[in-house]
Design brief:
alpha/beta, Nucleotidyltransferase, domain 5, 5 strands, about 35% helix, elongated
């Protein structure tokens, strides 16, 4: 006579989501309430400034490097030897050390770096690159 041992049927695991949903709602409420404190509604009387102050209307200095190696500082065409002195003079006139730089994509990397090094020697401390975004 054979003894038949029956195994108890395994129950499928049950995941209770109730506590998880409660935590999510509590976090949602917390972030909704705390976000209203970023700019609290205070009754401040802010000072006023005169809007008629003159704004600098000077054209920013733009250094362009063409594919053939020609340099342009705004509309002025320069040689490599004139670049440092002319750029130093224009920076002093404008009262800024900012320069916008644009170069043709076919310019060798070394040539662009040499031009930027010369600009740095002339006193440029802030350099902005002009580029075209991909469409």
């Amino acid at each position: 006579m054979a003894i038949d041992f029956k195994r108890p049927k395994a129950q499928a695991p049950v995941i209770e989501l109730t506590s998880l949903i409660d935590i999510i709602f509590q976090l949602l409420i917390f972030f909704m309430i705390s976000s209203s404190f970023l700019y609290p509604s205070l009754g401040l009387a802010l000072p006023r400034l005169d809007d008629s102050a003159p704004t600098p209307s000077a054209q920013p200095l733009t250094l362009s490097l063409e594919a053939d190696g020609t340099l342009h500082l705004n509309q002025l065409t320069l040689s490599e030897t004139e670049l440092e002195a002319t750029l130093r003079q224009k920076l002093a006139e404008s009262g800024t050390q900012a320069l916008h730089f644009r170069a043709d994509r076919s310019i060798p990397y070394e040539k662009a770096l040499q031009t930027l090094q010369t600009a740095g020697k002339a006193g440029v401390t802030q350099l902005n690159f002009i580029y075209q975004t991909a469409e």
